[in-house]
Amino acid sequence: MALDWDRIGTGDSEALLRPRDIYAGLASRPWPYLRHEQGEVLDKWFERRGDRDVVIKQNTGGGKTAVGLLIAQSTLNEGIGKAVYLTPDNYLVKQVREEAARLSIATTDDPHDPAFLSAQAVLVTNYQKLINGKSAFGVVGDGKEPIDLGVVVVDDAHAALARTEDQFRLRVPAGHGAYDKLLQLFAEDLRHQSANAWAELEDKDPTALAPIPFWAWADKHEEVLKILRPHREERTFMFVWPLLAEVMHLCTATATSAAIEIRPSCPPIDRIPSFVRARRRVYLTATLADDSALVTDFGADPALVAQPVTPGSAADLGERMILAPVALNPDLDDEAVRVLARQFADGDQDGDGVAETEPVNVVVLVPSDRAAANWAPYAHHIWRVGDLEAGVKDLQAGHVGLVVLVNKYDGVNLPAGACRLLVLDGVPRPLDGVERREAVALADSTIRLAREVQRIEQGMGRGVRDGEDYCAVLLLGAKLATAIHEARHLALFSPATQAQLKLSRDIAGQIKGEGLDAVRQALRACLGRVPQWRERSRRALAEAQPAGAGGGALRRARDGAGRGRGAA
Question: Which residue segments constitute the domains of the chain, with CATH numbers given?
Answer without folding.
Answer: 15-161+271-305 (3.40.50.300), 169-266 (no CATH), 319-543 (3.40.50.300)
